[in-house]
Automatic annotation (TrEMBL):
Residues 1-25 form the signal peptide. It comes from Oryzisolibacter propanilivorax. The keyword Metal-binding applies. Belongs to the bacterial solute-binding protein ModA family. GO terms for molecular function: metal ion binding; molybdate ion binding; tungstate binding. This is Molybdate transport system substrate-binding protein. The complex is composed of two ATP-binding proteins (ModC), two transmembrane proteins (ModB) and a solute-binding protein (ModA).
């Protein structure tokens, strides 16, 4: 009896070591750029399934997240819409500069909810049969800055500026275009793709040469420098599963 019981207890102890339990799981609060909403929701689910750790997500404008982080917001990881904000955070001691890396390179697209409305080369911008174009605030949102750089390259800035509807971030900008309040919108390709295909409407993928690269960097913030979930998430974002999701939404690396 006793030897058998001892063997059983030893086996159970071995299983407890192998299987991740609730005691070994941690949480990390993640501030996520609005353009990365859909892919990060999928990645967070996979991350929890594969590691047992949980990523608690908040979505918004990178500029606003920076202000919150500087004022002590307890985020553990920032997935920014640019590379300059994480660099600044590292230099200011608000995060661990050694953890910073580019998790995705964003793609700007001119999009309309109407099928067949946006043509190749964005020539629709030169036509006068539209009233509004949605653009994210270029002072807060890298996609908005890229949109303005594109308009400058096309020499159309002065022509369209009186018809711009400005979104606080790329999420709100997409809503303006999706609701029809703006016939056109410069949005993130990730917002209009599903399973690698355009979900609806019509679009022109803006060539990368039209604007500065939209490098999106991640960084571990000061409150999570010793958080196992934060370290695990940064590693997971570099892995094959996460990268497959990221690529399916039109990002590159």
């Amino acid at each position: 009896m006793f030897p058998a019981r001892k063997t059983l207890l030893s086996a159970l102890a071995a299983v407890a070591v192998v299987l991740p339990g609730a005691a070994s799981a941690d949480e990390v609060a993640v501030a996520v750029a609005a353009n990365f909403t859909a892919p990060m929701q999928k990645i967070a689910q996979l991350f929890e399934q594969d590691t047992g750790h949980k990523a608690v997500l908040s979505f918004g404008a990178t500029g606003k997240f920076y202000a919150q982080i500087a004022n002590g917001a307890p985020f553990g990881v920032l997935l920014a819409a640019d590379d300059t904000t994480p660099e600044k955070i590292g230099k200011e001691g608000l995060g661990d500069a050694s953890t910073r890396f580019t998790y995705a390179i964003g793609q700007l697209v001119l999009w309309s909810k109407q099928a067949g409305y946006v043509d190749e080369g964005g020539k629709v911008l030169e036509k006068g049969d539209w009233r509004h174009i949605a653009i994210a605030n270029p002072k807060l949102a890298p996609y908005g800055q890229a949109a303005m750089e594109t308009l400058d390259k096309l020499k159309l800035t002065d022509k369209v500026k009186g018809r711009v509807v400005q979104g606080e971030n790329i999420g709100q900008t997409y809503q303006f275009a999706a609701s029809g309040n703006a016939e056109l919108g410069f949005v993130a390709l990730s917002q209009v793709l599903e399973d690698g295909k355009l979900r609806e409407g019509s679009a022109w993928v803006v060539p990368a040469s039209m604007h500065e690269p939209i490098r999106q960097d991640a960084i571990v913030l000061k409150p999570a420098q010793n958080n196992p979930a934060a370290a695990a998430l940064m590693q997971y974002l570099r892995g094959d599963k996460a990268r497959a999701v990221i690529k399916s939404y039109g990002y590159s690396f």
